[in-house]
Amino acid sequence: MKYILLVGDGMADHPHPDLDNRTPLQAARTPNLDRLARQGIYGTAHTLLDGYPLGSDVANLAVMGYDPRQYYSGRAPLEAANIGVDLGPRDVAFRCNLVNVKNGHMQDFSSGHIPTDEAKPLIKLLNQKFGTDKIKFYLGTSYRHLLVWRGGPLKARCTPPHDISGQEITGFLPKGPGHKDLLQLMLDSRFLLEGHEINRERRHEGKPAANMIWLWGQGTKPQMPTMTDRFHVTGSVISAVDLIKGIGLYAGLSVVNVPGATGYLDTNYVGKAEAALKVLKKHDFVFVHVEAPDECGHNGDVAGKVRAIEDFDEKVVGTVLAGLEGRQDYKIMVLPDHPTPLDARTHTNESVPFLIYQPGEREPGAVSGYDEFQAKQTGLHIEAGWHLMEFFITGRLTEAVAPDLGGQAETTLAPDTPAQETPA
Q1: How do residues 12-33 score in pLDDT, each as one tens digit?
Q2: Would the pLDDT of 211 be above 70?
Q3: Which is deepest, 95, 209, 376, 390, by most CB within 10 Å?
């Protein structure tokens, strides 16, 4: 059996006035998702939990079947794995955004999605000026980079910059134990980066300057069992985002880097889907992650989010389905990791719609399409979202997890034996 996990980051949303009070999922044309929802197991799952960051780190750990209460140790350590940084026992990793601050406000948490080749000399300069035997900056992708601090301030309270778009930064600067050292680095970076030739050129071109670093998401190296240990499958992760790749690496998956994968609207959707089909020729499992809907949610870009969802449906879901046409030996699970509502411009602690499809398992249901409200109306809800992966792989969901399967229990996916290699 082949298992395909497709995540449209942040797709779930609220009704929006610019969409006739529909959500982007309702407004978008998604024939492939709609068909899979009609013919698959369809419901809602809660991937975030109280007391933990409302972020893609916690949510995607849950989507991958890891209970965040047991395995979450911070966002940055997950990203460190993909950058190739092996954290020591005293190392604290921080996510280091290159941001644009203007008139004391968080103007752009991504510095206009600064390209990696323009970010590289900025990170190099930060290392030259601020790096020590305990502090080192590492280049990531676009605006997403890493700071590793041996014995650093693990318990400082830091705010994700995408949570404060357009707001004055004063009330969101680091607080708590060790915050003064973090704050000093952040403020000093402003003086260092402001006049850099890269930023002078970006301003000349009308682009946001990457004129400050923002440190957040700190943590230490996690310890996690692999997907092979848990479900007897091998596979790969495909994403433009270091966080997702890092989760995949800790889960024992290989990383497939797709040319043109940007994490934004211009990403290579088809290339990701085609790479997934290649993975399935040798392995049992593939996780394809698309960041664009989330980025549009953070930016409040209504048209962009609808477009991102339509591209995800056509170019990712559609391409995968076309490549598997005629086969019966696969299951697909599709969901957002969390909502990123346009009105909030950040993540919210609400359930997301999920579907699980296996050819020939179910007759078409009464639903007409894939969206937040129709998923809720099925009555199937998984409150502890980390149980969803086990449900996907094994077809089993214990009564303690979901005592009411909303009438879908009679035709849940049949349990599988441990996955065996089958020719693609």
Answers
A1: 999 999 999 999 999 999 999 9
A2: yes
A3: 95
Domains along the sequence of the chain with CATH: 2-72+223-411 (3.40.720.10), 81-219 (no CATH)
d(CA 170, CA 18): 32
Q: Which residue has the tokens 């996510």?
A: 95
Within 10 angstroms of residue 120's Cβ, the number of other Cβ atoms is: 13
What Cα–Cα distance (Å) separates residue 305 from each residue in 48, 106, 215? 22, 21, 27
Q: Is the dihedral of CA 422, 322, 271, 27 positive or negative?
A: negative
Query: Any bridge partners for residue 254, and if so which?
Result: 236
Instruction: Classify strands 285-290 and 235-238 as parallel, antiparallel or unpaired.
Output: parallel
pLDDT higher than 60, residue 421: no
Q: Do residues 152 and 218 make contact, with C-beta atoms less than 8 angstroms apart?
A: yes
As a whole number of angstroms, the distance between CA 44 and CA 378 comes to 9
Tokens matching residue 335: 């969901």
Q: Where are the beta strands (DSSP E) in 208-284?
A: 212-219, 235-238, 254-256
Q: What pLDDT band is residue 403 in, cutting at 50, 70 and 90? A: very low
Each residue's pLDDT tens digit, 314-344 = 999 999 999 999 999 999 999 999 999 999 9
Q: What pTM, to 2 d.p., does this model score?
A: 0.85
Torsion of the alpha carbons at 231, 221, 123 and 185, rounded to the nearest 10: 140
Taking phi first (over 0 means left), then psi (-120 to 50 degrees means alpha), and beta for anything else, what does residue 104 get?
left
Token pair of 73, please?
């140790």
The three-state secondary structure class of 398 is coil
